[in-house]
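Work Package 3 (structural annotation) set out to generate three-dimensional models for the target panel prioritized at the project kickoff. During this period the team completed the workflow that converts sequence records into discrete structure tokens, so that structures can be stored uniformly alongside our sequence database. As a representative example, we reproduce one entry of 278 residues exactly as it appears in the project archive.
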Amino acid sequence: MSENTRRLLVVANETVAGMPLIDAVRRRAEQGPVEVHVICPQNAPKHGLVIYDETVREAAENRLALTLAQLREAGIEASGAVVDPDPYTAVMDALRERRYDEIIISTHPQTRSGWLRQGLVDRVRAATDIPVEHVVVDLDHEREQVKRTLVVANQTVASRELLDLLREKARQGRRRFIVLVPLGDASSSDEAHERLARTLEMLRREGLEAIGQVVHPDPYTAIRNAIQFYDPDEIVISTLPETRSGWLRADLVNRVRQLTSRPVEHVVAEPAPAEVAR
């Protein structure tokens, strides 16, 4: 690393993939070489009697992966880590591990930011002599550039019907797909991860932005948490036909429509050929 390289510590959670944050890092890179490390404090889900720690962490890792990919697209190499849920503790831990020349903290606007209500920016400034910049990311404004589509499916996640719909949405404008595969039972974990990996590979092969995770076994709880984690613009639920779908027998689609004002689209599909063979 060059002696003139500036080390930047970036702190963000739900706003970690926001363009104002990416632009703030890009401006510094234009002034000279930078080394960027992004820390993403994980947040706890608001719904579900059991907190699935792995699910919470994977959601944070997905948001972090989006940011690192966007920085790479801008020609900026960066590392990252999911860290302590308390952002102040996470920053102090990072500063003890190594020296940084500047800290960038990204939050929601004042009216929506728990970090600002906790006085995070002022507390960090008071605790260090390193310059601290506060970047506000308004995700509602960013919807004009990129739509976030939450996709929820299990056996039909790699189906032709679902993939055709996602391709059509991508043709209508830039989309970022978040694919959730609820874990049906403990014995199906490997199959769920395999379905998800196959679907993400198919989407990425076609140049579509996609991340995903295996989530809470109850699809309704998984969707409620995903709305908190990812703040999607629309929701697509893919099920088997009515006579074979436990989700439809549980009235999942209508329950989700009552849960949120976001558009909810239902796709009926058959399992992908590999699933039928299995």
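The chain has two domains: 6-141, 146-277.
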